[in-house]
UniProtKB/TrEMBL annotation:
GO terms for molecular function: peptidase activity. This is Accessory regulator AgrB. It comes from the Bacteria. GO terms for biological process: proteolysis; quorum sensing. One of its GO terms (cellular component) is membrane.
Length: 193
C-alpha cells in the first residue's frame, strides 16, 4: 500500500496539483484510503461468499464505532491487521451462520460484555495520545454507542431475532478481547479520565 500511495502522491505532485509542503498529508491520506478500501473489499467479498451481507453490515455498525472511540489491539503491520480483521470477522460470521443461542441467552451475554467493555475502559494508541477533552468526547460517544446498541439488542430480543443478537454478543466479545489484549501487551496505555 505504501508504494502505491507514494506513486499516487508523486503523480499529483508532478502534475502540480499539490505543493511539496502538502506531500506528507496526501501520502497519509492515500495510504489510509487504500488500506480502508482493501479491508472493505475483502470483508464484502467474504460476506458475499457466505451470503451474509446483512450480518456483515451489522458487524461493521457495531464494531467500528466502539473500536474508533475505545481503541484496542494494534498489530505491527497493516497486512497482519488485515488478515486478523478478516479472520475474526469470518469466524464470527461462521459461528452466527452455523450455531445459535436463544435470544435471551444471547442478550444476557451481550449485556455482560457491554458492561465489561465499559468497565475495562478505553486505551490510547502510543502514536496518538488523547488529551482530557478528547477523552471526554470519546467517552460520551462510547456511551451513546453503547446505548444505541442496547436499544438494538433489546429490539432483537423482543423480535426474537436470535442470529442478530447473537452476532451483537460476539462482536462485543471481540471488542472486549481486543481491549484486554491491548492492555496486557503494553502497546497501549489506559486512558486517564
Amino acid at each position: 500500500m505504501e508504494r502505491l500511495s507514494i506513486a499516487f502522491t508523486n503523480y499529483i505532485l508532478k502534475k502540480e496539483v499539490i505543493s511539496k509542503e502538502d506531500y506528507e498529508i496526501y501520502l497519509y491520506g492515500f495510504q489510509s484510503f487504500l488500506e480502508l478500501f482493501l479491508n472493505l473489499v475483502c470483508s464484502l467479498c467474504i460476506a458475499a461468499f457466505l451470503h451474509m451481507e446483512v450480518e456483515c453490515l451489522l458487524f461493521f455498525i457495531l464494531f467500528i464505532p466502539l473500536r474508533s472511540f475505545n481503541g484496542g489491539l494494534h498489530l505491527k503491520s497493516y497486512y497482519s491487521c488485515l488478515i486478523f480483521s478478516c479472520a475474526t470477522m469470518t469466524v464470527i460470521l461462521l459461528i452466527v451462520k452455523y450455531f445459535s443461542l436463544k435470544a435471551p441467552v444471547s442478550f444476557l451475554l451481550y449485556f455482560v460484555f457491554m458492561v465489561l467493555i465499559k468497565l475495562t475502559g478505553a486505551v490510547d494508541h502510543p502514536n496518538r495520545p488523547v488529551d482530557a477533552n478528547e477523552n471526554q468526547t470519546f467517552t460520551h460517544k462510547t456511551d451513546r454507542t453503547l446505548f444505541i446498541s442496547f436499544l438494538a439488542a433489546l429490539s432483537f430480543l423482543l423480535l426474537n431475532l436470535e442470529n442478530y443478537i447473537f452476532l451483537e454478543a460476539l462482536v462485543y466479545l471481540l471488542v472486549l478481547s481486543t481491549l484486554i489484549l491491548s492492555k496486557f501487551t503494553g502497546g497501549n496505555t489506559p486512558r486517564k479520565d
